[in-house]
Amino acid sequence: MEKIKKMLCTQGKYFAWKNGDLHTDLGTVKETDLVKAKDRVTTNTGVELHVFHPKFNDLLSKIKRGPQIMIPKDVGLLFSYTNIDRDSTVLEAGTGSGVTALHLARFVKKVITYEKRDEFFDIAKKNIEFFGFKNIVMNQKDVEEGLDEKELDLIVFDLAEPWRLVDKAYAALKEGCYVVAYLPSITQVMYFVKKAQEKFYVERVVEVLQREWHVEEKRVRPHSEMIAHTGFMCFVRKI
């Protein structure tokens, strides 16, 4: 996967440049201009674009995806509610495209992730290699055949039936630490909570809704579209 060299933006639109001329619906920018551009560049139609070096989220937006990913509004809760830090070891079951593992790897000591589907594992492996993280350990197998790790600081389940792993999760976690189950349907939440209550303290079940606003001088209004339901997050704690 070729590296993105620069990002350009204007009017809420973002463009990634790797090499050659950049062609957009706002016009074209020549490669020679992009190479020497520092903060701004103008298209052949006169539209000014802001230029900056790509950061983590810019690169993340351009990787290959397979299954549905956990998006930033949900990922943020993993850090806010679970007490993980740079000394933490986190286990994730359901690597998918590798997005959650990549978010976690930026801030924790080690991420152990399981993915049983070959096509998803291959996508995640390429994405993780693209970012170059060395603290992600990938397992190409069903987590039900593993999860024999101990002294974990967090377990994240992005699986259809996480309640099947409650007992193993309890044995793998440190005291006072969390299992977070990311589930699309409330029926799954009910099954998970019922099983988790046998061993864990069920702290919260959260659904995050995100609405952005348009702010232009005195013209202020909410966007007509919002990021509504993506998944429920169940936080249960080992006591």
List keywords for this structure.
239 residues, alpha/beta, Vcp-like ATPase, Chain A, domain 2, Rossmann fold, 4-stranded antiparallel beta sheet, 7-stranded mixed beta sheet, 2 domains
Low-confidence stretches: none
CATH topology-level name of the largest domain? Rossmann fold
CATH hierarchy, class of the largest domain: Alpha Beta
Radius of gyration over all CA atoms, rounded:
21 Å
Beginning-to-end CA distance, first to last residue: 44 Å
Which range does the strand content fall in? 25-35%
Which CATH architecture of the largest domain? 3-Layer(aba) Sandwich
- How confident overall, as mean pLDDT? 94
Brief overview:
The protein is α/β, with parallel strands linked by helices and 239 residues long. Helices cover 26% and strands 33% of the residues.
